[in-house]
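SAMPLE LOG
Freezer: B-3
Tube label: C17
Construct: single chain, 176 aa
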Amino acid sequence: MLASFQGLPRGSLSYYLVFYLINFVIIFFFGGPLAEEPGWRGFALPRMQLRFGSLWGTMLLGVVWAFWHLPDFLTRAQGGGPGTGWGTFFTNLPIFVLLVVALNVVMTWVYNHTQGSLFIAILLHASINTAGILPELFPAPNISMMTMSNLALLIAMVVPALLIVILTRGRLGYQP
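STRUCTURE (predicted):
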């Protein structure tokens, strides 16, 4: 499937765009965002912001959301599965939890600024999940693909998350 897209040379910008778009559509419909966001953003977030405030509710939801994916760490999907040791698990899990909490700050801010748009939350979730395929296209030597992917996303999410928290003084655009 990755060898060619209708004659596009592997390594060209067109190839990567087509590869990204195909994966985006697959992830949008079958990779979690369409099924998860009505629960996370549509149901849980409004109640948690009301009860705990926007920042604490968002952080708590981020931890719950990260541990929702804990079964993935027992599969190859998150770098686990048969043949992997505890070292891999204890390397990837904290990175993933921090990544999801930071991502949740960004997603809460977007959700609050779009008057609670689930569609935008689903698009953002799918976009971020699809960005996880980029390290597969540009691999680095001597580092596990999952660790590299999550580290890259963690760096990409922590900076905007911290800026959002600082600039909104922890309110994340929440209007009770």
